[in-house]
Amino acid sequence: MSQPAALTDQIVASPSPPKPPVIVIHEEDSTCSHLVALFTNESAKSALIKKYKSAVTWAASANLHKTQASKHTAKKRRLASPTCDACHVVLTRPVVCLECSFAGCWHNAHAVAHLRVSDHSFAVEAKTGAIFCASCDDFVYSNILDSLYDHINLSAAEKTLKYRDPGKIKEAYRQWSPDQKDQDFLQTSTTEVSSQGRRGLLNLGQTCAMNTILQSFIHNPLLRNYFLSDKHNYKLCLKPKDCMCCEMDKLFTEIFSGDPAPFGALSILPVMWRGSDSSSSFSEGYAQHDAHEFFISCIQHIHRTFKGSTESSCNCIIHSTFAGALASEIVCGKCRFSSTQVDPMLDISLELKGKDKDSSADEPTLHSCLRRRYTRAEKLPPKTYTCSKCGSNSDATKRLSFRKLPPVLAFQLKRFEHKTADKSSAHKITKPVRFPAQCNLAAFTSFGSNSEATSNIGPDILYDYDLFCVVNHEGAMDNGHYTNFARFEDEWYRFDDDKVTHAKLSQVLASNAYMLFYVKRQLDYHPVIRPSYVVSREKEAQREREREKEKLQTLNREIDDDLMRLLT
Amino acid sequence: MSEGDATFIEIHKRFTEKGEWDKIITSLLERLNETGWVDSLRDKSKESARSMETLRFEKLMETLNPHAQGSVPEGVRAEFVEQIRKFLESQIE
User: Fold this and answer.
1) Helix (H) or strand (E) holding B59
2) A334-520: which CATH number, 3.30.950.10, 3.40.50.2000, 1.25.40.20, 3.90.70.10?
3) pLDDT of A502-560, one tens digit each?
4) Residue-wise over A502-540: b if at least 16 C-beta within 10 A, else e?
5) Which of A31, A92, A492 is the mutation pick for testing B, counting most B CBs within 10 A?
6) How far is residue A505's CA from residue B49's CA, in Å, rounded to a whole number?
7) Catalytic residue positions of A, numbered
8) Is the separation of the CB atoms in A259 and A196 below 8 Å?
9) Are B84 and B24 in contact (CB under 8 A)?
10) Which end of chain B is more exposed for a tag (fewer CB within 10 A), N or C?
11) What CATH code is carried by the domain that includes residue B13?
């Protein structure tokens, strides 16, 4: 249980035979003409890349050691820190010359001074990989060095990741690059379309809740990649009637069709109505919907119509995207005996109300809501729990934590309060909750909150999440309107039904969020295994070939025999 | 090099070599992210860069630095100054 491997999710690596990692170097694209000129000389180019690699690799591994060491004071390791060659200050962010062995500081401008004096052209800030060009007198961009930087940092982190099998390190990430056959096919048989998929959705009569959730699906990288890679083709589906996967496939086809006009997701509504349980409001077909309710109904529906979905440990697209696990640990106050129950989860609902001990005056944050629920032990009211060991039923404490973090984490901030079952008495909590564009959830996992296990939690990148969609509810409880923000790469857009506008990050973060969607920066994956159906198909083909050969041989023999008979 | 500089270099060295520097930076960043400082600076950098006619790193730093320094919440600043002071005192006999 000490392995973070339990946090691994179900993303399967591409089933291709292992090859050494290749870095795909695209066409040169740089903001600096001096760098482009230097790169035309092959030997100068490889010398510079070699130097760049060693500087960035050093910084990446030093950084990993430090973050590990700063967490665990027990294994404090002394690393010889480099110092500035000019002023001898210890370099926390060294700037390294790419033409000699000089390392200097940025702050006192010693690195730049070195380039001037020695007539060297380029230096790198090793921690961020940023290139400084002396002739431009500024930092410059190069796509080659940029992708090299990403690759080096990823492989440095991969070396510290453990796999499901203890002791084995994680298989290196390999970028897919088309071979000649793929390339020919792509050139002759395909047309390029924009990969941005930004299209407004028409309001079909109080369907703004649905529209925001559909936008959250469209901008969800895991769902998008699944449907765009044709894993469920609605034209080939065997049970297309009321199939939500087909509806999703049609939606993605429409969104990425290149047509800029707003799209009306007409066919999803009747499928939702027919597929929902009679208890849900969607069966009525007219109610002003709650976006979270729509989200839950919709993902359940996709899950149900997914071919091969199961009730437990399902690997459908919904479960491999949203499923995580929560552990609730109850400790008996008398004998300290603890029992842990693990429950699956698809999303997290956070209470906005409650006693906040640590933030007296501060506004509530996503972290403070999470802390209240997921790290602190909560006293159980007496007589609600009986210890199975000593039989005591008082003083027990309960603590929730993430046992397995999902690839996409969906939060609902409980803004709608229902005091009674009667919906008309409900009211909306309008207080703002601050949420970050990036967050690290290590502290809320079963490992992170347990001080003994922290040495096993692995590098931070396992717990980093990026915000990609925010659903907002504007107006009052019963006549409000839903809008959302969604991110494509590093740009944010606001979606208000059919209207799509560019947005700033500050607008997104200042909005009164109702639902938040975060995606994990580093997805876990299984080691490369050839899928069993491919293996059996190949075996079958091999057997078929042998049978054919045998048949041919018998036939040949028979002909030979016949010939012999004729001759004799 | 003045005596003050030499002292600074020596203390800075102890900070980094004992791992205190990284410990402080890590927890400072965590706190600043929760207060929204990191995101607001990121947003401001991006929007300033977007609106600059000719993008220059030095110029961008000049516009951002006062904002970045000035917008650190008082509570966080006090807490980390205290942490640094404590380490300093433990280092000076």
Assistant:
1) helix B57-70
2) 3.90.70.10
3) 999 999 999 999 999 999 998 877 777 777 778 888 899 999 999 999 999 999 999 99
4) ebbbbebbebbbbbbbbbbebbbbeeeeeeeeeeeeeee
5) A92
6) 14
7) 208, 481
8) no
9) yes
10) C
11) 1.10.246.140
Where do we find the tokens 């129950």?
A: A341
Across the interface, which of A92, A139, A439 has its CB nearest the CB of B57? A139
pLDDT score for A74: 41
Residue-wise pLDDT tens for chain B (93 aa)? 566 788 888 888 888 888 888 889 989 999 999 999 999 999 999 999 999 988 899 999 999 999 999 999 999 999 999 999 999 898 876
Please state the ipTM of this predicted complex.
0.90
Give the whole-angstrom CA distance, residue A502 versus residue A495: 9
User: Which residue's structure tokens are 């590990």?
Assistant: A68
Rounded Cα distance between A41 and A305, Å, is 57
Interatomic CA distance for residues B51 and A185, integer angstroms: 42
Report which of A120, A75, A81, A117 is spatially closest to residue A101, judged by C-alpha positions.
A120
- Fold entry, domain A33-66+81-157: Herpes Virus-1 (3.30.40)
In chain B, how many domains are there? 1
3-state SS assignment for residue A491 = strand
User: Using the beta-carbon criterion (under 8 Å), do B23 and A70 form an inter-chain contact?
Assistant: yes
Residues near A275 by Cβ (< 8 Å), separated by ≥ 6?
A: A242, A244, A301, A304, A305
Distance from CA of A137 to the nearest CA of B (A): 9
Structure tokens of A65? 């050691």
Token digits of residue A557: 């023999």
**What token pair was written down for A273?**
């109505």
Sign of CA dihedral A482, A475, A359, A401: negative
